[in-house]
Write a structure and sequence with these properties.
The protein is of the alpha+beta class. The protein has one domain. It is built from two helices and seven strands, in the order ββαβαββββ. The strands form two sheets. A five-stranded antiparallel sheet has the order 3-7-6-5-4. Strands 1-2 form a two-stranded antiparallel sheet. β4 and β5 form a beta hairpin. The longest helix is centred in the middle third of the chain and has 39 residues. It starts with a strand and ends in a 7-residue tail after the last strand. The mean pLDDT is 88.
Amino acid sequence: MNYKHTCKGCTREFFGRRNQEFHNLQCKIDYNNEKAAQLRKELKDNKISLRNHLIFKEAYIAYKNRTVPLVNLLKKGLELAAPTRRMKTPKNGFEVYLSNGYAFRITSQNGNQYISIFKEEELSNF
């Protein structure tokens, strides 16, 4: 007995077995490849965010609200292109970036870039 379905890959209508989800094998392969590619991208983003979090945590413990040469953290693997949120601090309006519980601010002095790292809950002091 044939049942009417909509293909999960291309949304075409077709007739097939009761549990059939795709109208042909190529459509199933394309669908699963796209799904796997999306998962790999999400895992890569999570891996970068986790590595950045660990670098921020280590730097926060070591330097506690002092500026650090940005190049030191970049050598450890910090990726500034990782997903972050941007905001302004409540008191002084400094622009900071939020990433997994930490906030950071990049400044330039004498041609060098420095980074200050804070915990998100400390931002009300700035």
